Amino acid sequence: MNPNPSTHAPADPHEIGKNVKTQVRVGITLVIFTLVAVAISYVPFHSQRAHILAVIGVAALNALIVAGISMHLKTEKKIIGQFLVFTIVFVIGLFALTALAFFDSTGLH
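RESULT FIELD:
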């Protein structure tokens, strides 16, 4: 038996209905942001960098919504958030290293 009853799924039908409504709203929001990201891909920007940043911004919003609401991270302990932030920082660092290696001109004649 779990000593922490708050970790159990809600048994109250009202609570279940509230959770379902929240997840439906999250799903609709994710679909809308995904459509916005696809629409942004067709917008002519002046530079490729601005285009990439716009799509990454919308994708980051999607990721925050999924992590915060669907994965219930907004109500988790502080350490979980710290691990998430460190993970994001390391992923960005790895992407930066990959980009630096890709644009490195060493060895080109």
